[in-house]
Each structure stands twice: as structure tokens, then as C-alpha cells.
């Protein structure tokens, strides 16, 4: 039962892959016109903007993950400390 779901996901990804590789028509037109005129600064700035937009969600997720890890580590330390106190009190 699970294998047909995997195959379905593979088929859907293969069917959608040409759209995933597409570029915005306006961006492509801008890059082609500026590069053909000899100005590659616009193309490099556009690539820098794309990388910036790509990295921000990953940085947000990484920051949230780090804060969660740090807080859970503190909480775990507190629980161990309380468990140690309870053990000492009961013995």
C-alpha cells in the first residue's frame, strides 16, 4: 500500500519538474537584454537577490531550531537537577 504512494509522488514530481526549472518571464527578459547590451551587473545583482531570498527562510528555521534546542537543553538540565535533589532527599 505504501509503495503506490511513493510511485505517485515520483510521478507527480516528474510531471511538475519542467515548471520547477522555469524562470519568470520578466526576469529572464531583463537578464537577456542587459547581458546582450554588455551590462552584466544587473544579472549578477539579480542572482544575488535570488540567493538572498533563498537563504532567509533557512536562516529563520535554523534560528528557531537553535533556540528550541538551547531551551530544551536547559529544561533537561533543570529536570536532572530536580531528580537529583529528590533522590538525595529520599535516601
Write up what this structure looks like.
By secondary structure, the chain is mainly α. The chain contains three helices and no strands. The chain has helices spanning 2-20, 25-36, 41-90. The protein is elongated, with a radius of gyration of 26 Å.
Q: Main beta sheet: strand number and arrangement?
A: none
Sheet/helix structural class: mainly alpha
Helix content: over 70%
Q: What proportion strand?
A: under 5%
Overall pLDDT confidence: 81
How far is the first residue's CA from the last residue's CA?
Answer: 54 Å
| Strand/helix succession | HHH
Q: Any idea what the shape is?
A: elongated
The helix tally amounts to: 3
What's the total count of β strands? 0
The Cα radius of gyration reads 26 Å
In the predicted model, the low-confidence regions spanning at least 5 consecutive residues are: none
Describe the structure using short key phrases.
3 helices, 91 residues, mainly alpha, single chain, elongated
SSE order and pairing:
Elements: H1 2-20, H2 25-36, H3 41-90
Helix pairs in contact: 2-3
Q: Short summary of the structure?
A:
The chain has 91 residues and is mainly α. It has helices at 2-20, 25-36, 41-90.
Amino acid at each position: 500500500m505504501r509503495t503506490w504512494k511513493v510511485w505517485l509522488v515520483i510521478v507527480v514530481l516528474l510531471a511538475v519538474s519542467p515548471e520547477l526549472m522555469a524562470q519568470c518571464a520578466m526576469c529572464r527578459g531583463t537578464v537577456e537584454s542587459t547581458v546582450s547590451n554588455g551590462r552584466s551587473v544587473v544579472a549578477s545583482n539579480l542572482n544575488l537577490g535570488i540567493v538572498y531570498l533563498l537563504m532567509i527562510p533557512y536562516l529563520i528555521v535554523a534560528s528557531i531550531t537553535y533556540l528550541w534546542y538551547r531551551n530544551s537543553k536547559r529544561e533537561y538540565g533543570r529536570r536532572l537537577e530536580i531528580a537529583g535533589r529528590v533522590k538525595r532527599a529520599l535516601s
